[in-house]
Every structure is written in structure tokens, then in C-alpha cells.
Design brief:
Elements (H helix, E strand, L loop, with lengths): L12 H56 L2 H7 L1 H10 L6 E6 L4 E3 L5 H13 L1 E7 L5 E10 L5 E9 L1 H74 L4 H33 L7 E4 H19 L2 E7 L3 E4 L1 H17 L6 E9 L2 E8 L32 H11 L3 E7 L3 E7 L4 H6 L7
Helix pairs in contact: 1-5, 2-3, 5-6, 6-9, 7-8, 8-9
Length: 443
């Protein structure tokens, strides 16, 4: 039995490199996006946290000014009560200062020069902000606010915070973001590889099919070419009579026709794969095309001693390419006659089933083994029937399947070994097209 299994090939190194590159591109692009997102998020959070710190310092100076301006404390014990009350004011992680209009610290009684300078600036402008770097590498933020007590005295409330608080928040945020980003990159790399495998699977399948197609085509073309060459060599080896030359030329003619058929089929499939095959879409009657094909097939059946019958034959409007539809029917009729022994029968029927024009072709031929049925539409696939090989390259049913698919039709084959096969082609109903355009009977 001549069989082209077309088994799965090993992984193509070129495709694997493409998958790896795609995965790296996915992961790299996502990493860049995360870096840009992280940088933007860091800047936004830094501004927000810095603004929150400034707002908290401003709120602290307002609180301090409110306490210092308390009329009740002023009336009880004057400045001593005011200073005691301010000294008792405690705001977590904030250092509070109360200074007079000359920048002299009142509470506490000592302050560094940059604090006093900020206080005098606040006396002039109403508010002042400052940032100071200490010798031990810390950064301090200050907010100073001028206010007037009920007795008319001008004072300055100042609040100081260590910016280390911000840095701690930054470090925490960066750590959380970096951890999440690392997990995300790993997941993207895994998902990217799976996506790359899925996206390149059709490419790999196409490459495998192309390799098998070329190998099978070379194998199929090799036999007729070898026969042509052998017959030509034998005929030229010595002088022969007319009958011998006629016999040699007849063999050359037969093999040339077979070679031409293979090439024609290869061209059809190549154009189909490339999407270059032009397919007309016009309303027509399937029964007209079937009738024409039966006239052609009847001569073939008569030569082989096979009875070609017609069962149900209903009017069947469809939309499609009449040339391709004719090729489809001829292929199926040729197969049925080819695999039906002398004295057998091939029966064609055409009817509307469930609203769909349906063509059924049954034969009493050698049938198809159940193991071969799933692969009968594969290119170059040829099973064996009763140990007898039949001519053909195994391309006809592949072309028939392609034509059916292009017309939205379904083609199925049911077969029992040594009893026969039944091919069913069901076309979609051309209702809308019938209303839009009348169908002519001319093919």
C-alpha cells in the first residue's frame, strides 16, 4: 500500500528562534512599559507624598498658632501660660518652634540659624518654606507661618519634619513595585512564549506542509518522468518497426497526460494556498452542472463496464463558480468510477435536504478502510484497496475539499471496505442571491 503518512516533523530550529525572539520582544516591551510606568508612578507618588508632608507641616503650624493665640491662656498667666501650653503641644514626628518677630526662639529657647532665618522671612511674607541638609546626611523640611496674638503680638509658628519619612515610603513603594514587576515580567515571559508558540504554530504547520508537499510532489513527478525517459531511451537504442514506435509513443502519451494532470492539480492547490485563485460568485443551478458532468462521466463508465444511474434529481439553486463546481463533480465521479470494478454501479442523486441543495454519489466499489477515511482529503494520500494500486497522485479529493470549503459547502465520505462509498456534498441555500439576481440556465 502506497501511503504518505506525513508524520509530525521535529521542531524547526528557525521557528524556535522566531519563538524565542518573539518571547524576548514580549518580555522586553513589557519591561520597558513597566519601567516607564514605574518612573511615572514614582514621580507622581513622590509629588503626592511630598505635598502631603508639606500639608501636614502647614497643619502643624496652624495648630501651634491656634494654641499660642488662645485668649484664655493669655488672660490667665500671660506669656508664661502661652509658652507652657506650646511646650505641652506634641505632634508625632514633628518638631515645633515658636519664635518672635525678630526670629528669636521662644519655645524651645534655642534654634539653628536657618530656622531663625526662615522665621524672619515668614514675618515679612506671611509664610516660608525651607529645606536643610544636615551634616549626617539627613534632609529636614520646614514650614513657618506668621500669626498675631489677641494682644497684637506678632509671632511665628514653625514645624520641622525629617524627610527620611519620605524616603522610607519611597523605598517601601519601590520594593513593592519591583516585586510585583518581577512577577509580572516572569508571567509575561511565560505567557509570551505560549502566545509565540500558538502564533507560530500555523507557520510551522505551513512549513511542514510545504516540505511534505514538495517531497510528495517530487515523488509523484519522479515516476512518470522516469517512465518517459525509459521509453524514450529504449525506443532510441535501435531501429524499430512502426508498431514498436507506436507502442512507445502511446506510453509516452499516457504518462505525459498523467504528468500534466499532476502539474495542473499542483497549480490549482498552489494558487489556492496563495489566495490567487479567482472564484466567481453568481447564482446558478447545480442540477444543470451535474447533468453536464454526467454526460462526460457516462462515457468513462461505459468503457469500464460500469452502470451509471441517476436517482432523485431536483432543481437545486446555489451561488458559486460554475467552473470550480464542475471540477468538483468531475473529480468525485472520476474517483467513483475508478474505484468501482467492472460490473459495478455508480448512482448520482440531487435533492433538497433541510433546505440545502445536496448531491449524493454512491458506488459499489472497493470501499475505503476505516483507518484511511480520516485522511482521504490529505494531499498525495493514497490508500490501498484489495491490494490493487490505482493511478492518480492523491490530489483530487484535496482539490474537491478546497472547492467545497470555498463555496461554504460540506463534503463527507462514508465507506465500508469491499462494499462501496458514499460521498455527500451539501451546499448552502442561495435564497438571498435568488431574490437579488435571476439565475440563468446557461453554463
Amino acid at each position: 500500500m502506497a501511503r504518505n503518512d506525513g508524520g509530525s516533523s521535529s521542531r524547526d530550529p528557525h521557528v524556535e528562534r522566531v519563538r524565542t525572539r518573539l518571547t524576548l520582544w514580549y518580555a522586553g516591551t513589557f519591561t520597558v512599559i513597566l519601567l516607564l510606568l514605574g518612573a511615572g508612578l514614582f514621580v507622581a507618588l513622590r509629588r503626592q507624598v511630598s505635598r502631603q508632608l508639606d500639608d501636614s507641616l502647614s497643619a502643624a503650624t496652624i495648630e501651634l498658632a491656634s494654641v499660642a493665640s488662645s485668649r484664655q491662656l493669655q488672660e490667665e498667666r500671660g506669656d508664661s501660660a502661652l509658652l507652657d501650653a506650646v511646650d505641652e503641644l506634641r505632634i508625632p514626628e514633628r518638631t515645633m518652634y515658636l519664635l518672635d518677630e525678630r526670629g528669636t526662639p521662644l519655645v524651645p529657647t534655642e534654634a539653628e540659624g536657618w530656622i531663625r532665618q526662615s522665621a524672619t522671612t515668614a514675618v515679612k511674607t506671611g509664610r516660608a518654606s525651607a529645606q536643610y541638609n544636615t551634616d549626617d546626611g539627613r534632609t529636614l523640611r520646614l514650614e513657618a507661618r506668621r500669626f498675631r496674638t489677641p494682644r497684637g503680638r506678632v509671632l511665628v509658628a514653625a514645624a520641622i519634619a525629617d524627610q527620611l519619612e519620605l524616603e522610607d515610603r519611597y523605598a517601601q513603594l519601590i520594593g513593592v513595585f519591583a516585586g510585583a514587576a518581577l512577577i509580572a515580567i516572569v508571567l509575561v515571559a511565560i505567557g509570551g512564549y505560549m502566545l509565540a508558540r500558538k502564533s507560530t504554530a500555523p507557520i510551522e504547520a505551513t512549513i511542514d506542509n510545504m516540505r511534505r508537499f514538495m517531497a510528495d510532489a517530487a515523488h509523484q513527478l519522479k515516476t512518470p518522468i522516469a517512465i518517459l525517459r525509459t521509453n524514450a531511451d529504449v525506443a532510441l537504442q535501435r531501429q524499430r518497426d512502426a508498431d514498436e514506435y507506436r507502442s512507445a509513443l502511446k506510453t509516452v502519451e499516457d504518462e505525459s497526460r498523467r504528468l500534466g494532470a499532476i502539474v495542473d492539480h499542483l497549480l490549482v492547490l498552489a494558487r489556492a494556498d496563495a489566495g490567487d485563485q479567482q472564484i466567481a460568485q453568481r447564482p446558478l443551478y447545480l442540477d444543470d452542472i451535474v447533468s453536464d458532468c454526467l454526460s462526460v462521466a457516462r462515457a468513462m463508465a461505459t468503457r469500464k463496464g460500469i452502470q451509471l444511474d441517476v436517482d432523485a434529481f431536483e432543481e437545486s439553486p446555489i451561488v458559486g463558480d460554475p467552473t470550480l463546481i464542475r471540477d468538483l463533480i468531475i473529480i468525485l465521479l472520476d474517483n467513483a468510477i475508478k474505484f468501482t470494478p467492472q460490473g459495478g454501479r455508480v448512482t448520482m442523486s440531487l435533492s433538497m435536504k433541510s433546505g440545502r441543495p445536496t448531491m449524493t454519489l454512491a458506488d459499489t466499489g472497493v470501499g475505503i478502510d476505516s483507518d484511511d477515511l480520516p485522511r482521504v482529503f490529505d494531499r498525495f494520500y493514497r490508500g490501498a484497496h484489495d491490494g490493487a494500486q490505482h493511478d492518480g497522485a492523491g490530489l483530487g479529493l484535496s482539490i474537491a475539499k478546497w472547492i467545497a470549503d470555498e463555496h461554504g459547502a460540506t463534503i463527507t465520505i462514508d465507506s465500508i471496505l469491499n462494499q462501496g462509498s458514499t460521498v455527500t456534498v451539501a451546499f448552502p441555500l442561495a435564497v438571498r442571491s435568488l431574490a437579488a439576481s435571476p439565475i440563468t440556465r446557461a453554463l
